[in-house]
Structure formats: C-alpha cells, structure tokens
Hints:
Elements: H1 3-22, E1 25-26, H2 32-38, H3 44-57, H4 74-80, E2 84-85
Parallel strand pairs: 1-2
Helix pairs in contact: 2-3
Amino acid sequence: MPWFVVLRALVLGMWIAGAQAAAPIDINRADAQALQQGLTMVGAVKAEAIVEHRRRHGPFHRVEDLTQVKGIGKAIVERNRQRITVGNRALPADPVPGSVPVRTVPRR
C-alpha cells in the first residue's frame, strides 16, 4: 500500500476524532447512551444514574454538580470537564420530542 494512502487515512481519522471531541455533551439534555459514549469512565449504570438524578432533581447548574450523582466523583468530572456543558438552562431539561421552543420577536 502506498505511503500517501496510509497518510491520508491517518489524517482523515484524526480529523474525524477531533470533530467528535469538539462537540461538548450537554448533561441536561443528553440521553444515557450519549453520556456513555461521550464521557470517559461513564458506563451504562453511571449514565442511567445521571439521567435519573436529572429527572428527580432538575437540571444541573454547574459541571461540578455531577458529583451529586452516586458513582460520579471529582476525578470523573475533572477527566471530562472539557467534554461537558450544562447548556442553556432557560430551556426545559427534557423537551417533548418534536417540540421547538418559540421565542417572541420584538416589533419595531
């Protein structure tokens, strides 16, 4: 296999990995599968615990609030800090599928 084909595949793979890493995960909106796939050291059980905590207690206000979830400690939060966002808390945490928030536009 020619070296330029290998180089091209490597560059493409790095570009794809960088694009996926660039999109932070909104812990107030992500489902358990997205949390499990996008966060380091978070498996199916911890991802479900995050979703359940959010359902019972409402949205997270800060990234550090994840430590309130059983099984999530400071080390996991710090390891994932660059991957996590709490998003726009003005919107509901779990929107109804298919609904779109409507904002009024001021008239001039």
